[in-house]
Amino acid sequence: MKIGVIGAGSFGTALGGILEANGHELVYYDPAITDKFINDLLWDVEMVLLVAPSFAVPSIVPELQTNIPLIIATKGLLSDNLFAGFKDVMAISGPGFADDIKAKKDTYLTITDDRLAELFKADYLHFDRTKDVKGVLMCGALKNVYAIKAGFLGLKSGTPEHEQFIKEVAEEMEIILLANSAMRDTVKHFCGVDDLRLTCNYPSRNYEYGAKLHDDPNYKPEKTVEGLSALKRIVNGEIVVPDEANHLKQIIGMNIIGD
Question: Do 103 and 167 form a contact (C-beta atoms < 8 A)?
C-alpha cells in the first residue's frame, strides 16, 4: 500500500519505519521543509498518516483528500471536529517515545481500528482498543497540559505525591471527556493514564517547562511546548471545562499562555 506520511519528525519517521518494514511504500510530506503542495505530492496515496505538530494541523487538513482513510497520530488535538468531513478516520496514540520505537523497545499504544494493528504490526508494539477517536485525541492533548503542573510542583515519579496527582488528574480527565461527548473509559487505556504518567515526568518537554516556570515566572520556552498550545485553545473555549476540573482550572489560572 502507498501511504502518505505528513510530518517527518522523530515520531513520524519512527511510525513510518514500521510501515516500511511491513512492506508499505511511503511518501513523506513535511510542511516545515517542502515547498510542494500536499495534493501534488500525495495525489495517488491510498492512506494518510498525520503526524504533524498540532499547531500545523488546522492549515493542513483542508488540503487533504477526504475520501481515503486517515490515521491521526498527532498529539495535542482537543477534538475530532477538524475531521468531520472525512469518511474514514482512525487514531493511534499512547506512551511511546520515538526513540524507544526506533530502538524496538516494548511500547504500548491505543488504536481505534483493528486495521492499525496490522499496519503497525511489530513484536515490540502492544495495542489496546477503543472506538473513541475524540477521547483518544483529547487524552493526547490534556496530558500535556497536566504535565506542566506536575513539573511546576516538582513531583517525582514513584512518590506518593506523584501517584496521588496522577489519580486525581485521571479522574478529572474522565469528567472532561464525558462533558465533551467522549467516552470517560478511554482514560483507562494506554492513551490515557499510562501516557499521562509518562508525560508528567522528566524528560517530558511539558514537565520540564513547568519546572523552569517554577524557578522563573517569566521563562519562555525556545521549542514548542504542546501543553501550552492546548492550554491556549482550552482558554479560547475549544472544549467544555466542567466545574469539577479543579487541576485544569488552576493551570488556566496561572495565566501562562500570554497573548
Answer: no
